[in-house]
Amino acid sequence: MADVGILATTKAAEQIAPRTLDGPSGPRPKRRFSRANIIVYGTLFIVAVYYALPLYVMIVTSLKGMPEIQMGNIFAPPIEVTFEPWVKAWSEACTGINCDGLSRGFWNSVNILIPSLIVSIAVASINGYALSMWKFKGSEVFFSILMIGAFIPYQVMLYPIVIMLREAGLYGSLSGLVLVHVAFGMPINTLLFRNYFAAIPEELFKAARVDGAGFWAIFFRIIMPMSLPIFVVALIIQVTGIWNDFLFGVTYISSPDRYPMTVQLNNIVNSVQGVKEYNVNMAATLLTGLVPLTIYFISGKLFVRGIAAGAVKG
Amino acid sequence: MNHSVEIKNLDLSFGAVTVLENLNLDIHKGEFLVLLGSSGCGKSTLLNCIAGLLEVSDGQIWIEGKNVTWEAPSDRGIGMVFQSYALYPQMTVKGNLSFGLKNAKVPKAEIEKRVQRAADVLQIQPLLDRKPGALSGGQRQRVAIGRALVRDVDVFLFDEPLSNLDAKLRADLRVELKRLHQQLENTMIYVTHDQIEAMTLADRIAIMKGGSIMQLGSPDEIYNRPQNLYVADFIGSPSMNFIEGEFDGTHFKAGDMNMEMIGYAYVGSLTPSARRATIGIRPEHVITGELAATAPQRFTATVDLVEPMGSDTLVYATLDGKMFRIRMDGQAKVKPGESLPIGIDPARASLFDTKTEQRL
Fold it and tell me: CB contact, 8 Å: B89 with chain A?
């Protein structure tokens, strides 16, 4: 029916304008420097500068020596480029009695990130898979409860979790913190995976069942290979969330030896003894932000694709 | 007769909604059975129950003499072909064909042999290393059939397999399916809403409505002796003409029409008693032209509208104040406003009880 309709409208259009449109058609082209274009691109430029400027200041400052900083011109590029602040931030800066820089925090964060990432994505993807394809009695209730979990403010649960971890003997340890990250990442990531999997045609799932594939075979051999974009989205969300976390790190880790990078960064920047070494602080901050930044650069394209797919089909 | 698939007192409901109710169906070995009905009649649901993709609420399903009501889909000896093809997009055609066999732990050499054989039968040899994305609709459907073929199943289930194809390809694949069935001699259960597919492919057709079977019979029976008004109206395009009137035991009367039912075969060969009745006459069974004068019953209709269709001409006429469809020869020259002498052979008509809607 649709084809007939299209045919009819094209025919009608031909009758209205019979064969006079041999030349170029469509609206008149606009000039490049129209008033609207200047406003749009001008606004975009200003906003871009506004966002980029702090990053510029940080990079520039981190490459200057202290005397140069004390001259006061924070926007000026370094006269003499030095990487000493970066070295100092990484391996020499002091927090309390430890003077081995951010490197300790970095490795702590890596030790927290890797297991949290693997466990939380594994759990969330299997949750989402089960909730979208193997619906059981009460699966919707189960899902609703999970969603409520996503909307309870973290602060409410902060202290009860301290007690739970203490009772389980995990308080203060990295594995305790991993557990917390997995639990808090679960609702939103489950939702993400569930919506993505729900958009996979049901007949594909049925065909796999007729072909004798069970719960795990369908997940690993059919669903997972089709779902790379959503795994990348979850990866980015989790890496950023876990790496940037400060609250859980400071709450559930009891010893400065095991503090994650963010907490250690705070301790370096906020240490009150001696002269404030702005260049070292800037370098330390950039170092801490490097991991999420790298992830974005590597997988940005897939991230956009995954988000778009989830948005349209979810 | 050998039973292939037996469905016994099958019930299926989702909460308060009953989808299938006390359904019984006995499908013979090697039979091509078509489940036909409009959307929402439960035909796909029934197929999914047979496949084991839906849990039934009550009743039993037997396949090849085995109660499979609670078996997994892969243990039932069935293969299924879906409307959307449902090919695994990340696997090659070969991967798609062998996936089921790998799950069943069939030895590698045997898998290779069966894949080659299926590819030969379906003529998809050159496509084996391609991904489904690089195939046309017809090729994809062939691969989907192949996936059922390699598993050496007893019963093939088709869920509207041709609905996503364009008209020409659909007609071609229909013929191929029929040839495949003649070659393989498997039992095939085929769900469709297209009556042409049903009439051309089926050994028997089950017409479904509201979760139960309205009539089960050969295409010939369904077409010539519909059991009730629903089936009579559903089958045939353009659909049957219905005239409501009175039946007195020998004659059907409606308005000026008084038709003796000579040659009509009553159900169970018993002449029914007098009652309100509806007569159904297919447009293509109306006798026109020179033969109309010698027909058992003769009337005169007034032509309202003419639809020439090439192979034949569809005439919308008025008979006894009501619209009456007549299918005439493609060369018939009739004009609106003309009087058209027509004849009706009661032996080819269908008579129904108006109240119970059942055939008399």
Answer: yes
Report the predicted TM-score, pTM, of the whole model to 2 decimal places. 0.80
Show the tokens assigned to B250: 């020998």
* Chain A residue with minimum CA distance to B158: A207
- Asked if B315 contacts B328 with a C-beta cutoff of 8 angstroms, the reply is yes
| Count of domains observed in chain A | 1
| 3-state secondary structure (DSSP) of residue B215 | strand
Type of residue numbered A297: F
How many other C-beta atoms can be found within 10 angstroms of the C-beta atom of residue B284?
15
Across the interface, whether the CB atoms of A210 and B79 are under 8 A apart is answered yes
Q: Just give the CATH number of B233-353.
A: 2.40.50.140
**CATH number of the domain within which A245 lies:** 1.10.3720.10
Pairing of strands B187-192, B32-36: parallel
Give residue-wise pLDDT tens across range B215-238. 999 999 999 999 999 999 999 988
Name the residue with tokens 């993709």: B53
**Closest C-alpha to B49, from B62, B37, B39:** B62
Chain A contact for B82, CB < 8 A?
A: yes
Q: Where are the beta strands (DSSP E) in B3-143?
A: 3-14, 17-28, 32-36, 58-63, 66-67, 78-81
Collect all residues of chain A within an 8 Å Cβ-Cβ radius of residue B89.
226
- The CATH classification number of B3-231 equals 3.40.50.300
Domain assignment present for residue A11? The answer is no
pLDDT tens-digit map of B159-188: 999 988 888 889 989 999 999 999 988 999
Report yes or no on A90 lying in a domain: no
For residue A50, tell me if it sits in a domain: no
Cβ–Cβ under 8 Å, residues A237 and A151: no
Q: Cα separation of A251 and B283, whole Å?
A: 84
Phi and psi, residue A25, nearest 5°: -130, 180
Name the residue with tokens 């084996």: B128
Evaluate if residue A312 carries a pLDDT over 70: no
